[in-house]
Amino acid sequence: MIVTANENYINVIMNLSAEDPFACRIISQYNSYDSSLAFVDYWTIIDDKTDECTGAISRCGTSFILFLTDKTNLEEVSSFMRVAGASSAICSGDFNLNLYGSKSVSGVILKKSEPFQNVDESINFDVPDIKEVYNLIVSCADENFVPPPFDDFYVDVNHKLRHNATRMYGVYDGTKLVAMAMTVAESSNGAVLGAVSCHPDYRKHGYGSTVVKYISNRLVAENKTVYLHRAKNANQSFYNNLGFEQCGIWCEYYFER
């Protein structure tokens, strides 16, 4: 059965899996957006026979994150998602959900738990403001990533910054932001990187790889495993050359309403 989360939600998730990018994303959202808010919800998935927790679900607006395990009743989750009013749902691609009428995209999950060596300290790193970050992301948009509207992006990132659920670092050429990386979720032992961007005019100079190394080393120093979701066939050599290891696959379902 799927039940509304209680005050032990984070502990329950951590007991299920100390290291999982989807658990990290749900915990980060829970720490950022209180369950009393109308646009978020949190659930635990409970085995009907043993009362054992077997997974977790979160909702923000109409976007869902699913943390599934080998013991999760996938048919129950599939039924729940079909009536939940979701526009999208992301989860591990190791689990096949029966979501009629949905389309899906997938890719690989990469991780890094050891620090990078030889980060170029001569590069000018700084914390960019949100508008700078958004403008850079827009300049790098492609078929694998379509930026959200600015107002939605600003409100979400600004809120997460205040709750220590995201951080951003950038590389500058003078006063111009030319490359950046940020976390889209953080928990006590994990972080998910996203929106890694380098301006088209500044590529092939090592700026993108250097900012990824910089933010990753700061996270690893806090004993956090760094995860990222790479789109299928996108940036494969970039992350392989950096030494990220594949640890799974992700799948995102979309529902046309």
From TrEMBL:
<keyword id="KW-0808">Transferase</keyword>
<feature type="domain" description="N-acetyltransferase">
    <location>
        <begin position="114"/>
        <end position="257"/>
    </location>
</feature>
<dbReference type="InterPro" id="IPR016181">
    <property type="entry name" value="Acyl_CoA_acyltransferase"/>
</dbReference>
<dbReference type="GO" id="GO:0016747">
    <property type="term" value="F:acyltransferase activity, transferring groups other than amino-acyl groups"/>
</dbReference>
<dbReference type="InterPro" id="IPR013653">
    <property type="entry name" value="GCN5-like_dom"/>
</dbReference>
<dbReference type="InterPro" id="IPR000182">
    <property type="entry name" value="GNAT_dom"/>
</dbReference>
<dbReference type="Pfam" id="PF08445">
    <property type="entry name" value="FR47"/>
</dbReference>
<protein>
    <submittedName>
        <fullName>Ribosomal-protein-alanine acetyltransferase</fullName>
    </submittedName>
</protein>
